[in-house]
Amino acid sequence: MRDRGVIYTGLLIFLGLITFPVWHDLAAGTTSRGPEPILPAQEKQCVAPLGYMRTSHMNLLMDWRETVVRRDAHSFKAFNGKTYTMSLTGTCLTGCHTNKADFCDRCHNYAGVSVYCWDCHVDPKLARRSAK
Amino acid sequence: MKISRKGFLQIGGLSLLAVAGKTAIAELLGKGEGETPSPPGAAAATRWAMVVDSAKCLEKDGCTDCINACNKAHNVPVINDPLHEVKWIWKEPFENALPSQESAYTEAKFRGKPVMVFCNHCDNPPCARVCPTKATWKREDGIVMMDWHRCIGCRYCVAACPYGSRSFNWVDPRPYVAELNPDFPTRTKGVVEKCTFCEERLYKGQAPVCVEACPEKALVFGNLADPKSEVRQLLESHYTIRRRPELGTQPDVFYLV
Questions:
Q1: Which residue on chain A is closest to B200 by alpha carbon?
Q2: Is B105 on the interface with A (CB under 8 A)?
C-alpha cells in the first residue's frame, strides 16, 4: 500500500475533472437560470392559447406552411375569433415577436434545438440592418 | 324444404340472368350509374396565363426593369458564373427562345434580339410529373407551383424542363442577394427554384411584379378562363406562338411576334 498517496491524488483529480461542468456552471450561476425569452410588450395574446403555443408552436407553424404553400389559403381563424394572415415573418415576427434573437433563439439555444426555418425565411430585423 | 337438382339449377340460372340483366337494362334506359355529370362551374374558374409582346418589349433598348423587379421581390441571387446562376425571368436570343421560328431569313427586327422567357406554367408540366416528392405540382389555377420545403434537390425537374426554366442552387444564395426582402424567403443550397407567376401577390389581387414593372406594358397577365380578359382578347385578335409547342407541354405563356 505504498502507492496510496498516488492513487488518492489520481482519483481526486479524476473526480474533479469529470465533475468540472457542474462546478463551472455553479460558479457562473447559470444552473438555475431558464431561457427567459422576452415576450412582446404590445400584444398580450398569441394566435393560440399560451399552453398550446409553448408545447406545439412547431405543429401550428407546420400547419400554416402546408395550408399556405399547398392549399393557397392565407387567413387563419384564431380560437378567440380573430383572423390572422398565416405568415411567419409577416405576422409572427413583424406583428409581435419583433426581436427573434430575444424570443425564438433564446429558448432554442437553451434547449439545443436548431431549426432550419431561418435558412430561407428572412428575419425582418436583419433585412433592415443589411439594407442600411 | 327439399330442393331438387333441377329446381336448384333453375333458380341459379334465373338469378344470374337477373344480375346480368339489371346492368343491361340500366344501360339501355340511359346512364343509370357510372358517369356523373360535372356540376356547373366545375370547370376551372381561373387559368393564369401571360402574353408577351416581343416587339413592344424591344422598344426600350437594354431594358431590364422586369428582371430587376422580380429579382428584388423574390430574393433571386445574382450569380454571374453561368454554372451557378439562378434565373426566374431572363432574356434569351429570339432563335433560342423560339427555335421553331428560326430560319436563315428571320425578320430583321427579331434577328438575334432578346426575348423575355420564364417558366411557361405548362398545362402538361414535365417537371411536375418527374418530381419524386411532389415539391412541384400543377395548381388548379394553372400555376406550376413549388414547395421549397419539400424539395430534396434531386434535379429531375431541371432535366425534365425543356425550357431551362429551373435553376438549382449549387451554392448558398444569400450572399448573392443584394438587398434581402423580408416578405419573401430566400432559398437554400440544394433547392431548385423558378418563377411562380407571383402567386404570393395573386391572392391579394395584384398582378405579377414583372407585369407591373414593364414600362412598355409588353407583358400582359390574365385569366384564360375568362373570355373577357385581356389575355383572351389578345389571343383572339392576334397570331401568337408558344415555345416549342411540338413537345406537347402546352405552355400558358404566349408570344406575340
A1: A72
A2: no
Chain B positions touching A67 (Cβ under 8 A) are: none
Cell of A88: 411567419
The CATH number, out of the four listed (3.40.50.300, 3.90.950.10, 3.30.70.20, 1.20.120.610), of the domain defined by the range B48-256: 3.30.70.20
Residue-wise pLDDT for B170-192, tens only, equals 999 999 998 899 999 999 999 99
Q: pLDDT band for position B72 (50/70/90)?
A: very high
Res B107: pLDDT:
82
A55 touches chain B (CB under 8 A): no
Gap from A18 CA to chain B (nearest CA, Å): 40
Residue B228 in this model has a pLDDT that exceeds 50? yes
pLDDT of B34: 47
Q: Using 50, 70 and 90 to split pLDDT, how confident is the model at A130? A: low
B148 lies within 8 A of chain A by CB:
yes
Cβ-proximal residues to B171 (8 Å cutoff; 6+ apart), any chain? B79, B84, B189
Question: Nearest 5°: CA angle at B217, between B255 and B221?
Answer: 60
Smallest CA–CA separation between A77 and chain B, in Å? 17
Say yes or no for a CB contact (<8 Å) between B183 and A89: yes
What span, in angstroms and rounded, lies between the C-alpha atoms of A68 and A61?
Answer: 10
User: d(Cα B120, Cα A30) in Å, to the nearest integer?
Assistant: 57
Compare all CA atoms of chain B with the CA of A118 and give the residue at the minimum distance. Answer: B185
3-state secondary structure B158-226: HHHCCCCCCEECCCCCHHHCCCCCCCCCCCCCCCEECCCCCHHHHCCCCCCHHHHHCCCCCEEEEECCC
pTM: 0.78
* CA B63/CA B216 separation, integer angstroms: 10
Give the domain ranges of chain B.
48-256
* Grid-cell match 426575348, residue found: B115
pLDDT tens digits along B95-136? 999 988 878 888 888 888 999 999 999 999 999 999 999 999
Q: Tell me the chain A residues in contact with residue B181 when contact means C-beta distances shorter than 8 Å.
A: 122, 127
